[in-house]
Amino acid sequence: MKVPAHWQTSGVKARPGHFSHRDLSKMMEMNVVLTIVSLTLGCFPSAIYACDEADADSLLSFASIVSSSPSLNWSNSIDCCLWEGITCNSDLTRVTRLWLPSRGLRGPVAPSLANVNHLTHLNLYRNSLFGSLPPGFFSSLNNLQIIDFSHNDLSGKLPSSSSSSSRLEDVNLSSNRMGGDIPSWFLKGAWNLSSFDVSSNQFTGVMPSHIWINSSRSIQFLDFSMNYFSGEIPRGLGSCLNLKVFRAGSNSLKGSLPHDLHKSASIEELSVPQNQLSGPIDEAIANVTNLRIIELSSNGFTGPILAETGKLYNLQQLLLQNNRLNGSLPSSLMDCTNLMLLNLRSNSLLGDLSTFNFSKLVQLRVLDLGYNDFSGNFPQSLFSCKSLTAVRLSANRIAGHIPPEISHLQSLSFMAISRSNLSNIAATFTSLMGCRNLTAIILSHNFIGESMPEVEMTVNLRGFQNLELLALVGCQLQGRVPAWLATLRNLRVLDLSQNRLTGEMGNSLGLSPLVLPIFVVPDISRMRLFNGRFVLPPAIYLDSNGLSGSIPVEIGQLKSLHVLSLSRNHFYGSIPDEIAQVTILERLDLSSNSLTGKIPASLVGLHFLSSFSIAFNDLDGEIPSGGQFDTFPSASFEGNPKLCGSIVQRPCFTQEENDAPEPKHAPEPEDTIVGLAAGLSFGFIVGSTCGFFYMDDFRRFIARFTKFF
Q1: Residue 43 phi, psi (nearest 5)
Q2: What is the pLDDT of residues 312-356, one digit of tens each?
Q3: For 4-21, b where at least 16 C-beta lie within 10 A, e where not — what string?
Q4: Is the pLDDT of residue 170 over 80?
Q5: Which one in 213, 531, 657, 705 has a CA-CA gap of 20 to 30 Å to 350?
Q6: Structure pTM?
Q7: How far apart (Å, rounded) are the C-alpha atoms in residues 411 and 385?
Q8: How does strand 317-319 pair with strand 95-99?
Q9: How far is the C-alpha of 56 from the C-alpha of 705, rounded, in Å?
Q10: How far is CA 429 from CA 182, 287, 423, 441, 606, in A?
C-alpha cells in the first residue's frame, strides 16, 4: 500500500556517506510506526479510499424505492464498500457485487441499478421485488457474470437490449411472473453461459433455441419448465457438448423428442413431463449412457419401452407414467442396476409380472406399475429388492395372495394393490404383518365376499404398530368391524366403506373422547402417497352409508371441525344443539336422514357456515333467521313439510294453534352396510397437523364402536 507523502520520513535528515547512532535510532522508530500505520490502513481502507460516488448514488437510488426489514445500513456517512451486501474490487473504488438474497426487499428494480456497471455478481434471490426489469438492463451491465432474480414477483416482458455481457455465466429469473416471448436478441452475446433458468414464469412462444446454440460449448443447465411455451422442442441440443440438465416440463410442447438429442453425450437429466409430446420414444436415447433421470410422464408417447433400456447403466429414475405406452417390460431393464425409482403407472403395459426378474434392482426404492394390464401373482423376485419403500400395483390383474416372504422387505412402508384379483385376505394380512415399517396398506376392491379376519389377526399385531392408513373399500367383506383395529396405536386413516359389515351406530359410538378431526381424501389412489402427509381441513364425511342411531352430542367437542357431512344415512332423533359449539364449521349436511324436532336456533351463531342442508328429513317448526341462515336457498330445507317460514313460503302458527307435537318414533335398528368413512374413493384420515389431538382417543373410539358388533 502506498504511504501518503506527509507520512513519509519527515524530520529525518539523511547525511551523505554515513548515519549517526541517533539517526539510525530515529529511522528504526519511524519504520515501526509506518508498519503499524500500514497494517491499520489495511484493516480500515475507507480511511483513505471511498467507493465510486456514482456507484453509491445509484445504489442509494435503488434503496430509496425499496423497503426492507430490518433496514439496510446504506448511508452517505459510510463508505459504500462497507455496506451490507456490497463488495468492491481490489482497489476498493468500484462496486462489483450486490448480494442480498432473502433480505426482505420489497419494491421495483430501479433503473439506476444498471448504472453500477462494474457489477459482476447480482443476487437478489427470494425477495419481494415487483414490476418489470428496466429497459436495457442487461446491455448496461456488461461485466455481469451471475444474475439471480429468482423467487420474486417480477412481471412484464424481458428488457429490450441489443447485446449482453459476454461474461455472463449464470442467469436465474425463475419463479416470477415474467411473460411474453423470449426474443432472439436476448443474451445474444452470452457466449460463456453455463446456466439459464426461467422456470415457473409465464413465457410464451417457441422455445429460444439461440440460448443454447450461442453457448453450445459452455451451457450445462437449461430449465424452461412451468411456462406456456408451445411448438416443438427446437433442435440444437445435440451440439451442446457439456449439457447436463434439460428441463421443459409443464408447457404446451408438441411433436417428438428432437432427433439430435442423443448426440449430447454429457446429458444426465432429461425432464419434459406434462406436455403434449407424442410418438414413440427414440431408441437412440439408449445411447446417452450418462442419463441418470428420464422424466417423460404425462405426455402422449406411444409404442413400447425402449428395448435397449439396459444400456443406461447410470439410470436412477425412469418416470414414464400417464402415457400410451404398450407392450411388456423389456428384459434389459434388469441391467439398470442403479435404478431407484421406476414409475410406469397409467399406460397399457401388459405381461405376467410373476415371470419378470426384479432381483438385480437391489437399489430400487419406489415401484409404481399401477393402472396397466399386468397379470400373474405378486412377483416374488421383488423380495430381493431390500431397499423398497413403496410398491403400487393397483388396477391390474394381480391374483392370489401376498406371500409371507414379503417380510424380507423391512424398509417397505407403502403397499397399494387395489382393484385387482387378490384373494385370501387372512393370509395376505398375516404376511404383511411381517413388514414392521408398514405405514400404509391399500387393498381396496379385492377379496370379494370374504370375511373380515378377526381371531387370526389377534395373534401378532406388532407388524401393524406403525400402520397409519388402512383401506379395504368395496371388498364386500362380511362380518363385523374387528376389535383388533383398536390396538393399532398409530392408525390415522381407516376406510371400510362399501362392504357388508353389519351393526348400528348409536350414542355409545364413543365420540365422547374423540378429540380428533377426520379428513376425507378424494380419489386417494391418484394422490402422491409416497412422500409427505396429507394436509386437509378437519372434516367428517360419513355420508352415503347405512349408519343409524342419533347424532352424538359429543360432536360439539370437535372444535376444529370444518365439515360435517352425515347425509344419506338412517340417523334419527333431534339435531344436537351442541353442533353450534363447533364455531368454525363451514359445511353442515344432514340431509336424507330421519331427523325430527326443530332446527336449533343456536346454529345461527355459526358465522362461517357457507353450505347447509337438512333437506328430506322430518323436521318441524320455524326455520331460524339471521346470520348465515338468511343466505341459504330453499333447497336446503325441502322435503320437510312441517317446517315453516318465509324461505319455504309456509306461514308459521302460534304455539296455541299447534301445541300438539307429533310423536317421535325411532326406527328399529337394522343390519346395514357400515362404513366408517364414506369418502369418494378413500375414507377418512384421523390426525392433525395442528397438534391438538391424541391417538389414544381414536383407539378408545374404535374400541367402543366395535362393542356393538
Answers
A1: -80, -30
A2: 999 999 999 999 999 999 999 999 999 999 999 999 999 999 999
A3: eeeeeeeeeeeeeeeeee
A4: yes
A5: 531
A6: 0.74
A7: 10
A8: unpaired
A9: 73
A10: 57, 44, 11, 10, 44
